[in-house]
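Researcher: Re-running this chain for the archive, since the previous output was lost when a drive failed. Same request as before.
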Amino acid sequence: MEDLVLLNALGVHLVLIQSTRHAIDSYIGEQGLESAYHGHRRITDQPLLNRIVDLVSQNRLTFRGLFMRAQHRNRGKSSLISGNFVSAKPLGIHEGVNHQFTGSVRRIDASGIRRQLEIGSVVYLDHLAHSPAGELYNLASEEVAAETAVALNADKLILMGETPHCTDTEGERISELALALVGTTRSHQNNEMQRRLDAAERAVRGGVGRCHLLGAGIDGAILTELMTTDGTGTLIASQPAAPVRQARVDDLPGLIHLLAPMEEQGALVQRSRDKLEAEINHFFVIEQDGRILGSAALYPLETGCAELAALAVDHATTEQSIGTKLLKHIEEQARTLSIQTLFVLTTQASDWFKERGFEMSSVEALPENRQALYNYQRNSLILKKEL
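Model: Regenerated structure tokens:
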């Protein structure tokens, strides 16, 4: 809560959407009841709706108290505003199933919300909304969040839950996910994350610039995600913020500028402009705002083997984030070429590679065509990783 008050004090316009899904699940479990679902949507009958109204009201009062305390501690002055900014419509009957009091978003009063934001208020919404006919419906909080973000043309949508981030098939955190990959990633996430991914996809397709999936149990998750390069969650955007791409000849000036300091330090083998140009198809780069932030090269050797070379990162960036992103991309490229073993020769970064799964090796383990080119004067350490 204090992080939200701080962001608001810094001029960030905040719209907060409450979710009571866990509280509803706990109530149903305690009562020994079973929730009826159709797909991912809970079917809300009248007794359950009455209980949801109680839970939403309790959560709203608890939230208001926490907000007031955080404001007092940080000398904030904003008001917390709720209202009928969301109108609902019934889901009705789908595939023969009557959803009763489960509804969906009919309209977001974007102009009304903006008026409150412009005077510095924090807008607080829940997932209960009335239809124009005065009927009350239970909506999915993720849907309310996505539709509100789209209606406001928000810069960011942040979706928090128990699961802190998306994971790949190896169980590793996905820190950044392009919109085109959401579909293939969704299948191996849990139900909670799938709901958030659906909302994120809806929001980004609707024009929201960035969507962040964060863990509610991580202290400082919002500030860490928004104000550091690495963050703690998963960022979803129409295109990666700084994608890895194939290097081009017009990248040569930027590549030379990037590699020169490391060549002077002896961390990289010196390459002339002519050699770089001749080998440009082996290089991949990360570019942002016209500046090359990082590079890496992949040189196939004998069958099933390749060498990772010229991994370099601009000293002004977060080396861990950019370097790791380049390494993962090189590994993906190697796999597409049916490479099973990836070698790297380094004089100063062996620990960095060990932390990412490489193991110490020897000159004798190199393929013969690479052994012949080994520079004993540089005495580089040799590491390898089985892909």
